[in-house]
Amino acid sequence: MTQAERLLIAGEWVPAESGRTSRTYDPSNGTELAEFAEAGRADVDSAVAAARAAFEDPAWRDLSPDARGRMLWKVADLIERDAAELAELETHDQGQPIAMSTGVNVVLAAQVFRYYAGWATKIEGKLSSVSVPDTLHYTRREPLGVVGLITPWNFPFAIAAWKLAPALATGNTVVLKPAEQTPLSTLRLGRLCVEAGLPAGVVNVLTGGPEVGRALVAHPDVDKISFTGSTEVGQQIAAAAATDLKRVGLELGGKAPSIITRDADIDAAVVGNLQGALFNTGQACGAYTRFYVDAKRADEFTEKIAAAAQTLKIGPGIDPDTVLGPLVSQEQLDRVAGYVAGGVAQGAQLVTGGDRASGRGLDSGYFFSPTVFAGVRDDMTIAREEIFGPVLSILSYDDEDEAVARANDTRYGLAAVVWTHDLTAAHRLAARIHAGTVFVNQLPLIDPGAPWGGFGMSGWGREMGTFALDEFTETKGVWVNLAR
What we know:
It comes from Paractinoplanes ferrugineus. Helices cover 38% and strands 20% of the residues. The chain has a seven-stranded mixed β-sheet, sandwiched between helices. The protein has a six-stranded mixed β-sheet with strand order 9-8-7-10-11-19, with helices on both faces. A three-stranded antiparallel β-sheet has the order 5-6-20. The protein folds into two domains: 7-252 and 458-478, Aldehyde Dehydrogenase, Chain A, domain 1; 256-447, Aldehyde Dehydrogenase, Chain A, domain 2, CATH 3.40.309. The relative contact order is 0.14. It has helices at residues 41-56, 58-61, 65-81, 83-94, 98-119, 156-169, 184-195, 210-218, 231-241, 266-278, 298-309, 330-345, 381-384, 400-407, 423-432, 467-471, and strands at 7-9, 12-14, 21-25, 32-37, 127-128, 135-143, 146-150, 173-177, 203-205, 224-228, 247-251, 256-260, 288-294, 349-352, 371-374, 391-397, 415-419, 437-440, 459-460, 473-481.
């Protein structure tokens, strides 16, 4: 074990004031990866103070938009320079297949920084047509101040990037807190920000458990919290933030429905839904989880997707042939197993999977077999609650109105997908489904130019695109008396 990873506060790498540390482990085999500092309330106070000082410092406050954009572009260059190392770090710490960390998450992180580097010079106000004589009115877009970014364990590097880049592009300063299960790639991102020349205190990184996040949310000098994680924690953050009315952005849980119409290409739907359900071992809020299949095609779809699931290579994420990696922890493994047992108890038909994957070097990791249930009812727990694992629930329907009503019968509304050859039906269904993003005949994708966020209990606000600029800025009106 190397020296413990430290906290980034005011441009310096320092131990936690208490001296406490925690450890992170490779979920594919349980081996210890690193020791890291366990921040406390005093460290939160120091990081917020550093961020506030940096926000007021002319070195950041008066930096030209072009210079700020160049710094973000430099971060993107450094991500690409270290891409292979970052991908391996992410795979060991989180468990995701190396193909995903290499080809999707690290690539997306660089893309996000470049996208918002371009926006740094394009954050504009507007001239307003007011009816007061001899008066000029215009608006300015200004940064909020100090923002707390709290990220989850499922895509730690990519999500840290897509929060951090727009926060910096708009001129804010940041305290970034990764999940305690997967801190390593975020710490490395902090190092890249320092190397890119961002002034001390503009980006601070605190590692530790939930108490760090709670202290950050409660801190009176934090102007906004941007959180990605569970709906339950999001509710707690919203309640706590009400005390001082700080801004809150929440990207929370999902239970994405997939509607497979009678005319759909079933073979394409099987491949797309399997990948859309099981990427990152189903540990994704946008993963496809409820499959509403036209009753005429349900048996065919069930048979084919179950057969395809049985062929997937399960193994350590670092193996380039792995399709299904481990779950992130023993706690998550137990959670998924509990949902599966509950599905069986409530009468769902277990078609394949349903247990921990073992043998072939898997016994020391947190592996779970891809699991397909048929005959699922809408009131079953596996059809209503977010499982965050490789569990697919198949339900059948008789007509479009029924499918839409049942797909919308959920507290979530993050993502959905439609599989059809009928272009008219595709647009009609996309309009009727209550979700922040609807995909048609494709995998769940995220792009810097497209908004991401949900309806209902899936959260508040939108990330990505120009929408993130709104999340990290205030609008100020300026009145100028032109009368002589």
